[in-house]
Structures are given as C-alpha cells and as structure tokens.
Specification:
The chain has 270 residues and is of the alpha/beta class. The chain contains 9 helices and 12 strands. Helices cover 34% and strands 24% of the residues.
Length: 270
C-alpha cells in the first residue's frame, strides 16, 4: 500500500507543528496539506520550516476542500468550531478524520457521530498509549471498589490551554463512571469553591491546574477508609500525542465507516 497522504489541521500551532514532525519522522505517511484558519498570519508559510524541518513545499492554506482532493486523512487537534467545520468536508471527501480536539459540547459530538455512517472517525481525548492503558485500569479499579472509595481526578496543563477539565480528565472520568455503571454527567463535581457542604457520595471530582509549559499530568485517586490508591500519567512531550494520532490514522486507513477511539486502535476495547 502506498503512503497515506495526511493533512494537518492547525498546522501553525504547537500541536500542528508536532504532527508535521511526526509525519516526517515516520514511515507509511506523507504530508499532503497544512490547514490553518482563515485570516491567520501563518497562511502561506512553509509547514516544514514552521515545524523546524527543511522546507517541504507544503504551504499553509485555509482551503480544506481543495487540499483534501488528493488526501487520505486529516489529523485535527484544533478547536471545536474548526473541527466541526472540518467534519462535513472530511466526510464528503471520504477521508479518515482523526480528532484530538477537546472542549467539545454534546451537540458537537452529535454532529461528529452523524457522519460516521459514511465516514471513518477516530476520536479521543488523548492519543497516548499510556493514558489509554490508564483509562482501562481506572475502569477496572472503579468496578472493584465500592462507593466507600471516593474518586478524584486531578489534571495539570500549560497556561495556554483554554478548556477545563481536560479532555483526558473527562475520558478518565467516563472510564471510572463506566466501572461504577453510573452516568458521569449526573455524578460529577467540578470547581469547588466556598461553602460547598460535604462531599456527595458517589460523585467523581475534578480539579484543574494551569501553568508553565506542562504537556499534561493526570492522576486518578481512589480514597477509602484509612487508605488511598492513586494512578497517574505524566506526558513529557506533545510528540507522544502526535505519534499516537499518526498511529490512529494508519490503523483507520481502509476501515469501514464508524466512530472509533484509541481504545479500538490499541486493542483495549471491551
């Protein structure tokens, strides 16, 4: 099979540049396009140069329809509005859409799922092997421990991250909720401040820290009578997410239409 031709969305941003480097460093894929938002000062710049590589002749453009004509997939770590705009074009072109964008609303997720009867979408709050293994373990532990063990999720990211809790924290919360057979949106505690009263039994708590250049730290604590268990993951470089997204794209190439996750890519699905 020939190399998979991939578009990087948000190619001028930090994650976009990491994705461009990951494609250049890996076998089986080539950069077919570099997408940026209309009006961006990055438009027209060389994607390779922006990523700290030799010039590759791929100029940043805002025209996804044109660049997707000869592409096989798009790697999309942007913002919800941009991702939703990309969904329809990717589905119309029949290309794989790997979505690592976080901060999605329920209506955004509904739009994404609406195209998966005719398009291949891989969506995950985190593309790393370690985090997806952590989620699988969290689900097992939550199932094994009863509600005398409280569950608290702590996440830390760089100061420029715009959504909280992180997509990874929510993914871990969903894993814990699945283990307990409860709905996360009905058993979620966020942003405690002031006189909150005692902790509600069965809730899954979230706390978010922001600062510096932290790529992503996550921990899930199970706090019971006289003991606690903490499971954690530290991301040391966003390249790990880029290589995970590339792995997802290569895995999805040729798959039948559907909505997949990194758990599917890694063989961790139940």
């Amino acid at each position: 099979m020939s190399d998979m031709r991939l578009i990087v969305a948000g190619a001028g941003g930090r994650m976009g540049r990491a994705l461009t480097r990951a494609i250049a460093e890996s076998k089986g894929a080539v950069l077919a396009g570099a997408l940026e938002a209309p009006g961006s000062e990055m438009l027209g710049k060389d994607a390779g140069v922006l990523a700290g590589l030799p010039a590759n002749g791929i100029k940043l453009s805002a025209d996804l329809w044109a660049m997707s004509r000869d592409a096989d997939g798009i790697l999309d770590f942007t913002v919800p509005a941009a991702t939703i705009a990309n969904v329809a074009i990717a589905a119309e072109r029949g290309i794989v859409h790997v979505i690592g964008t976080t901060g999605m609303s329920p209506s955004d997720d509904a739009v994404i799922r609406s195209v998966t009867n005719r398009a291949v979408v891989v969506q995950s709050g985190n593309m790393s092997l370690g985090v997806n293994l952590l989620a699988a373990v969290v689900k097992r532990v939550a199932k094994a421990l009863d509600q005398s063990f409280d569950i608290e999720i702590l996440e830390m990211h760089h100061k420029s991250k715009i959504d909280a809790p992180s997509g990874t924290a929510l993914m871990l919360g969903e894993a814990a909720a699945a283990g307990r057979k409860i709905a996360l949106d009905q058993h979620s505690a966020r942003g405690r401040d002031g006189i909150t009263g005692a902790r509600r039994p069965g809730n899954i708590g979230f706390a978010s820290l922001r600062g510096g250049t932290v790529a992503g730290d996550h921990s899930v604590s199970f706090l019971g009578p006289f003991e606690r268990l903490t499971l954690s993951h530290q991301a040391e470089d966003r390249m790990l997410f880029a290589h995970g997204a590339l792995k997802a794209a290569l895995w999805a190439h040729g798959k039948k239409p559907g909505h997949y996750s990194m758990a599917d890519v890694l063989g961790l699905s139940d």
